[in-house]
Every structure is written in structure tokens, then in C-alpha cells.
Amino acid sequence: MPVGIPIAVAGVTGGALLASSKIQSNSNTDAADTRARAATEAARIRNQFDEKQLEYLKGESFLTRQQDEINRRANWYEHDATEQNLHNRLRDSFSNIYGATTAQGLNETNRFNVGQGNLYDRWTTERGDTNTKDALQYQQMSDIRAMLGSRPRGSLTFGDNPEFRQSTYTPGPRPTVTDREKREFVPSNVPFRA
Hints:
There is one protein chain. The protein is rod-shaped, with a radius of gyration of 61 Å. Helix content is 75%, strand content 0%. By secondary structure, the chain is an all-alpha fold. The mean pLDDT is 80. The protein has one helix at residues 4-148.
């Protein structure tokens, strides 16, 4: 066999191998480039996702802090209203007790004064009856003495009035409840904007 044919076959085989290895090399390069682009794109998408997730978590954290501050403020105002309500009830209770005590004292004083007035009226009526009787008797005795020529008796005197006293009621000092010391709400350092 001629020497040129194996060389030609070897050349064709070598050229085919060379072309095949070139094609395989290009394919491997393209595959590596595609894998690199895919990995870069995946990393970029992952980075965007992580940034969006971080932004979302920051927003959620801010909203949670803001809601906590709103709840804290609402609780403070509710507590303040409860304290003011208790203060008002205490003041009203003191005022009602004072009014009830004053009314009771005035009623008792008025009852006593009415009783004293009734005693005085009864005494005046009885004394008037006695005085009228004594005056008639005195007049008759004076007439008899005058007829007998005796000296007339002295002037007719009536007994002194007994002491009837009227009572007055003086209420004690009105209780005072000082105004409640109001404290202002102190907000925390939570900003209301993200």
C-alpha cells in the first residue's frame, strides 16, 4: 500500500479529531459561559430578592413598632381617663356626704326649733289663761278691798318667761378635693414615617 494513503487517512483522522476537539472545546466554552451567565443571573435575582425581603422586613418591623406605640398611647389615655373618673367620683362622694350631713343637721335643728316653739306656744297659752284668771281675781280683790276701805295691793306681776332657746345649725367646712395632677404622655422615639 502506498505510503501516502495512511498519511492521508491519518491526516483526515487528525483533521477530524482536531475539528472535533475544536467543536467540543467551543461547546464546552459555550456551556461554561451559559453556566456562568445563569449563575450570575441567579445571583443577581437572589440579591434583588434579598434586598426586597430586607425592605419588606424593615417595613414590617417599623409597622410593628408604630402599632406598639399607638397601643401604648391608647393604654396611657385609657389609664388617664380611669384616673380622672376615680378622682371625679371621690370629689362627688365627698360633696354628697357633705350635703347629706348638712341636710341632716338642718333637719334636726329645725325639728328642735319647732319643738321649742311648740313648748313656748303652749306655755304662752297656759300662762295667758292663768294671767287672765289672776287678773280677774286681782280685780275682784281690789274691788273688795276698796269697799272695805283697805289699802289696794301692789300692781299685779306675772311670772317671767322661761328660757326657750332657738338653735342654729352651722355646717362644717366644705371638703375640698384638689385638682388631679395631670401628666402628659411621653412618646417613645419611634418615628411615624419609614
